[in-house]
Amino acid sequence: MKLLPYPLLTASLLAMWLLLNGLSMGQFVLGTVIAIAVGSVTAALQPAKPRFKRWYLLPKLVAIVLADIWRSNIAVARLILRKDQSRRVSGFVVVPLELRDPLGLAILACIVTSTPGTAWVEHDSTSNKLLLHVFDLVDEQHWIDLIKQRYEHLLLEILA
Amino acid sequence: MTHAGDLPVWAAIATSCLVLLGAGLTLVGALGLLRLKTFYERVHAPTLGATWGAGGILLGSILLFTVLQSRPVLHEALIAVFVTVTTPVTLMLLTRAAVYRDRSEGKDIPRP
Amino acid sequence: MSASILSWSLLTAQILLGIAMIIACIRMIRGPRAQDRIVALDALYVNGMLLLLVFGMSTAVTHYFEAALVISVLGFVSTAALAKFLMRGEVIE
Q: Does C56 contact chain B (CB < 8 Å)?
């Protein structure tokens, strides 16, 4: 058994421990013991190690997502405050995906769900299609293009 | 408010704007929870409070305590990471549960 | 000057978040189905956490931030467990 199967996890656990408990020699020793123990316990779960080929594109993805969340926050807040709710149509959209990597799909799911206005409902791994619920469904194709061009392309590039 | 006595005015105004923005967005999200008609519409409402609602308040708090230099801003960063990771997961789990229940009752939910 | 600006805006934010919590409670009581109640409960957790953060900002007591961290952790675990219960009828299989 290796002592440090996941060095990044161990390091970030130790950093979090020291940030929460204050920097002192005793906390450092205790934090190191706990971080190494948790790291080797995690190895029993055998999580897949993430492989970011083009990790330098990650900040771009984060910036795009933050801006999109901001814009859809405003849009959804307006829609909620509007008087007649019956004019707005919301519904399900099926999006065919190319992305197959589990980590990429997980990131995409988090992006889609934390953006107000779209919610991830289901993903079928055999047909690789995604069921999405859209709050303000005017044009189905617009939402399919948005998911595919804005997020999926970038994720494919990062993970490829 | 004794700890904020020597705060510069620009920091006070910026913090106030951020906190009020966050609280306002959270309130709008809660209103959506009440006003919208179906479950799948209502799932969209709490994300307002969990994204920029929480973000505004956390940024305000970071700004306030950085300018005051009273303590490092670690808890806010941890809370921000935690909220951004957990909210999508809970909402996804809940939508999946709702879809499962609706389908087992014979309601028409499209399949991917 | 700046202290009074800050205290008024933090008080307003507290009132807004309090109203948001009340609204989430109303949705939780009204339902109509279990999943609606759980979404409202989750929103209640988040709003309560934000309210504690604002309390922490107005008093500069660090314990409020720790409480907010604990609430966000517990809220996540409980909502996940409830969602699992809705799907299968039991939490641990």
A: yes
What is the number of structural domains in chain C? 1
Determine how many CB atoms are found less than 10 A away from the CB of residue B69: 7
* C2 neighbors B8 (Cβ within 8 angstroms): yes
Domain that holds residue C13: 2-88
| ipTM, 2 dp | 0.86
Residue C15 CB partners (closer than 8 Å, separation 6+): none
Chain B contact for C79 (CB, 8 A cutoff):
yes
What is the rounded distance in angstroms from the CA atom of residue B110 to the CA atom of residue A137?
Answer: 15
Query: Which chain B residues touch A122 with a CB distance below 8 Å?
Result: 96, 99, 111-112
Partners of A93 in the beta sheet?
Answer: A132
**B1-24 as b/e: b if 16+ CB within 10 A:** bebbeebeeebbebbbebbbbbbb
Q: Number of structural domains, chain B?
A: 1
- Of B17, B38, B82, C29, whose CA–CA distance to A119 is shortest? B38
Instruction: Scan for tokens 């849009």, then name that residue.
Output: A75
- The answer to the question of residue C93 being in a domain is no
User: For chain B, percent helix, then strand, then coil, each to nearest 5?
Assistant: 80, 0, 20
Treating both helix axes as pointing N-terminal to C-terminal, what angle do A7-21 and B74-104 enclose, rounded to 10 degrees?
120
The better pLDDT of the pair B67, C92 is held by B67
Domain that holds residue B24: 7-102
The DSSP code sequence of A92-146 is EEEEE-----HHHHHHHHHHHHHSTTEEEEEEETTTTEEEEEESS-S-HHHHHHI
| Inter-chain touch C86–B76, beta carbons under 8 Å | no
B contacts of C8 (beta carbons < 8 Å): 16
- B62 assigned to some structural domain: yes
pLDDT tens string B49-106? 888 888 899 888 888 888 887 666 777 888 888 888 888 888 888 888 888 888 888 7
Q: Which of A119, A124, A115 is nearest to A96 (CA)?
A: A124
Give yes or no for a contact between B48 and A135, defined as CB atoms under 8 angstroms apart.
Answer: no
